[in-house]
Amino acid sequence: MATHKQIYVNLPVKDLARSKAFFEAVGYRFNPQFTNDKGAGMELGENLYAMLLAEDFARTFTPKAFPDARTATTGWVCLSCESREEVDALVARAVAAGGSVPSAPQDHGFMYGHGFEDLDGHHWELVHMTGMPQA
Fold first, then answer.
1. Which residues of 111-126 are buried (b: 16+ CB within 10 A; e: fewer)?
2. Tens place of pLDDT per residue across the chain (135 aa)
3. Intrachain domains 1-60 and 70-135 with the same fold
4. Segments making up each domain of the chain, as ranges
5. Residue 12 φ/ψ, nearest 5 degrees
6. Which helix (H) or strand (E) holds 112?
7. Which pTM value belongs to this model?
């Protein structure tokens, strides 16, 4: 089985400075060692990072086109939270900073989830789990 020690999710963004300001308003910080005018290393947790890459720079890593994340979904980022209150607080801060909410919160009993879309339309799902689903 393959195992990994870190994860780096790479996301193309149209305006790096604006995206950084958005995520700072939500409550995230950036590692200055991995941040410049081409990309920004956002710290999501211990060994968890999102690399916000200016689109021109991101294109140097792939020949594929970037779909408009406001109208197409190729995937989304899901992060665990310590509580329902943390989930709701992060969504509220994202909305206050200019993000949007793609759907209503979902309560599955063992798991509560809600999410937001950032300025580029990337979907961030936030969940708090209190157990496992019934078999």
1. ebbbbbbbbbbbbbbb
2. 888 899 999 999 999 999 999 999 999 999 999 999 999 999 999 999 999 999 999 999 999 999 999 999 889 999 999 999 999 999 999 999 999 999 999 999 999 999 999 999 999 999 999 977 776
3. yes
4. 1-60, 70-135
5. -75, 140
6. strand 111-117
7. 0.91
124 near 107, Cβ under 8 Å?
no
What does the alpha-carbon distance between residue 49 and residue 83 come to, in Å, rounded to a whole number?
21
Tokens of 107: 């309560």
**pLDDT score, position 132:** 78
CATH superfamily of 70-135: 2,3-Dihydroxybiphenyl 1,2-Dioxygenase, domain 1 (3.10.180.10)
Go through 45-59 and write b for each residue having 16 or more CB atoms within 10 A of its CB, e for each that does not.
eeeebbbbbbeebbe
State the fold for domain 1-60: 2,3-Dihydroxybiphenyl 1,2-Dioxygenase; domain 1 (3.10.180)
Helix or strand or coil: residue 127? strand
CA dihedral 74, 84, 119, 36 (to 10 degrees): -90
Residues in the chain: 135
